[in-house]
Amino acid sequence: MSESLAQVASYLGGLAVYLRNLGADVPEPVLDRYDTGEIGFAITGELPGLDDPKPAAITAQEIWNPAGVGRYERAEYAYDLIDYPANRRRAFHMHDVPAYLARLGVTAHEHCEEVLGKPTCDQYLGLPVYGGYEGLSALLAAWSDPGPLGCARLRCAR
Amino acid sequence: MQDKQFLSPNDVASELSVSASTVLRLIHEQRLPAIRVSERIYRIPVAAFEKYKAGALESPSPARISPEISKRLRIGAGEPLPEAAEVVARVRSA
Predict the structure, then answer these.
(1) Which chain B residues touch A63 with a CB distance below 8 Å?
(2) DSSP states along A20-68
(3) Residue A78's closest CA among A28, A135, A121, A10?
(4) ipTM rounded to 2 decimals
């Protein structure tokens, strides 16, 4: 589904407010225009609550490709949660799509580390995430749950 | 409440002296920020509840569009690609 530049800017502003209203500390977002003709953004929020050794961080990065005059389609993304207090990581990614399709037959992959920096698998097979709200809300659900992330239930992309 | 990081709808109902169904309605109407853990489970960060009580929730507004043209963001930079995929990526970028 293609969107105008203004619609992507509204979407990005909405993502930042979504996180802020949940208590995250999020800098003012900026929609960047790239020399490739694409647009994109990267926003990071520090989540409230525990902050030892530092607060949990949630990130959304997206690249939107031109899709007709003044229109753009989301082509790549990375939604990441690094939960420093819980010492774990969860992420949903779609990038380097031709390479992943050729090697693994999937466009999207995931990261899951029950112990931060010690993944039992570098990449897990993933299903595409529909949009930033879906990606961030899944990560926030993981953040709010004290139980294991459930990495063992995922399919390793080996 | 001070040593808790998240509240349940029942906790919030108790704080606001309303019913749990009223709290769920506030969540569904997106007037009270909450994290949906599953179809029936919601968690409300204490920080979000404090914002709600203070009337400090923000309304969405469009992000600023950079007037500058910049270099493209590289998503996944530094992430190892699956072995064979690295070859495909190199061929495509050549």
Answers:
(1) 72-73, 75
(2) HHTT-B-PPPEEEEETTS-EEEEEEEEPSS--SSS--EEEEEEEEEE-S
(3) A135
(4) 0.91
Measured in angstroms, the CA of A35 and the nearest CA of chain B are apart by 6
Number of neighbouring beta carbons within 10 Å of residue B85: 20
Neighboring chain B residues of A157 at a CB cutoff of 8 Å: 82
- Enter the tokens of residue A108: 């999207």
Average pLDDT over residues A130-154: 96
d(CA A73, nearest CA chain B) in Å: 16
Please tell me which residue of chain B has the smallest CA distance to A123. B82
Bond before A48 cis per omega within 30 degrees: no
Tokens of A149: 């992330």
| pTM of the full structure | 0.92
